[in-house]
Design brief:
0% strand; mainly alpha; 7 helices
């Protein structure tokens, strides 16, 4: 049962890494420091004070950078592969009592996969906002992503099952919206 909660917590934290890379890592760090979250051996550094300073500084810089209109789209291009790595590390760090090779398979596929999915969905929303508003709507998108990262990471740590339910709902909505967009654009090309 502890493995299952570890996997759910890891997937939730990975999804949060798809919204923002450093916010969930900072929340993980604080949760480990205050004893709310346990990490697997080899990942104790996540709960260190130097990690608090590093993640805290990176979080502030990341949050501010997403409010600069041209920089936010550039960051999305960089954030895609980095969020996958962060998601995999976050997942692997909280899966306890699982063989090493199996833990990393789950972390890379589930953790990295969900982080990449969420990052791709939010990047597509930002691109659409840039197209429709000339970038004026992007601060709202940045704020929603920040709130999403905080809520998702906190739920992953406190109530992992609820976090997974919200991720599934977000996934269905994102796939539905993408399908509607694709179907509509395909129909327009076929019937001018």
């Amino acid at each position: 049962m502890e493995e299952l909660f570890g996997i759910m917590t890891g997937i939730g934290l990975a999804a949060a890494c798809g919204f923002r890379i450093f916010v969930p890592l900072l929340l993980m760090n604080l949760a480990v420091l205050f004893g709310y979250l346990h990490v697997t051996p080899g990942f104790e550094w996540i709960g260190g004070y130097s990690a608090t300073i590093t993640f805290g500084t990176a979080t502030v810089l990341e949050i501010l950078a997403y409010y600069i209109p041209w920089l936010d789209n550039l960051l999305d291009a960089i954030a895609s592969p980095v969020s996958i790595i962060a998601g995999a590390v976050a997942t692997a760090s909280v899966i306890i009592d699982m063989p090493y090779h199996l833990k990393w398979i789950v972390a890379i596929i589930a953790g990295g996969g969900i982080a990449g999915f969420v990052q791709g969905a939010t990047g597509a929303i930002r691109a659409k906002s840039t197209l429709l508003t000339g970038g004026l709507g992007n601060p709202l998108i940045a704020t929603l992503e920040l709130v999403g990262a905080i809520i998702t990471a906190a739920l992953a740590i406190v109530v992992p099952i609820l976090c997974i339910a919200l991720i599934v709902i977000f996934g269905f909505i994102a796939v539905y919206k993408a399908g509607r967009f694709f179907f509509r654009s395909t129909t327009r090309r076929q019937h001018p």
